[in-house]
Amino acid sequence: MKSQEPWGSAKRSVQEDPAAAQARKEIAATLGIKDPIFNQQWHLFNAAQPGHDLNVTGVWLEGITGKGVTTAIVDDGLDMYSNDLSDNYYAQGSYDFNDKTEEPRPRLFDDKHGTRCAGEVAASRNDVCGVGIAYDSKVAGIRILSKPINDVDEASAVNYGYQHNDIYSCSWGPPDDGQTMDAPGLLIQRAIVNGVQKGRQGKGSIFVFAAGNGAMSDDNCNFDGYTNSIYSITVGAIDREGNHPSYSESCSAQLVVAYSSGGGDAIHTTDVGPNKCYAGHGGTSAAGPLAAGALALALSVRPELTWRDAQYLLLETAVPVHEDDGSWQVTKIGKKFSHDWGYGKVDTYALVQKAKEWTLVKPQAWYHSPWLRVLHDIPQGDHGLASTFEVTADMMKKANIARLEHVTVTMNVNHTRRGDLSVELRSPEGIVSHLSTPRRLDNEAAGYVDWTFMSVAHW
Question: C or N: which end of the chain has fewer Cβ atoms within 10 Å?
């Protein structure tokens, strides 16, 4: 397991728009925000590129700041003695699975990642560093990344305190090296299902995963069994200018993007130490916790939202970006989906407003097709093998399916070089999911063995 580590980027000074800077000053005065680095927290209010932020201050002005919601940061620890985090630290939801102790505090010199992620969500409104997106919410620490752990401990970690920890923010996964294809073991998979079925008094734990930083190695978040799970909200990155950073992975399982490093800046947040701040937090690691924090605000308004409602609300309110880049498809429900951006960037204000009057979804229903056997050699070049399966209205009715959400495809393919394979799923309307894409570094002399790909493009 590897944390989705920050990608540093050279700082460059940016010219702020005077009217936007004045608006930020007035908002800070109204809310009593005196935190010294708040003006550098462009992801909360961007005065240099107006509109390129999480659109959260309007929610705060309504008095919605995350009260009553807890986000567990599953990572390398959390500095509960930081003056920026101590007031919002939730000890009962925290545990150190690496050192088997109650306090998941950073012990190694590089145990800083979790504290930085925690600051993004729940740094207090005080006189230290900046504020979190849900600055009156609670944050728990679950430490698993600082030494190898077994599946029993990892399974326990993702269910730890699951009646009180509402959201699990996970900025880690298999290596982003463009050649790994790895999924959680059966015990961990069962724990995640247990979380969505029984967590939060049956409304379901909300799991947020960073998409991964392997784009420059042709990596794809559908080769990661955490990010391609239907139970995960997979979050990619966007930089402060609204561009796609070179590291952020694309895939058909990606739901949304949130702000992070690139474009000459990074996320400014809390660091390990009593009063320490950090200006270089980044990668999809930093995008995931911001989406988790936005969901914390939505849950503080509507605690009864289920894990599936959370996914619906994100895709319903996400804002498409760079709509002329050729990556977008218009889906059956009139939404736009892109493998690079999911349904778009998180709009916290729209998310929270929609959550207020959202009609809760019905219980989840499933339809499993029979196994389809395609007993042919894989042709060379771009002439593929096609396999078609028709799902009729009658089948849907029998399975009690009213609406399509996630589509999963489990595949077994024999091949001599895994990195040469690519797989597309096409709907009757012509929406294409790139389930698998070629990877130049993947020389594995095998195909796919019982691997499940996932798509949210056909929602």
Answer: N
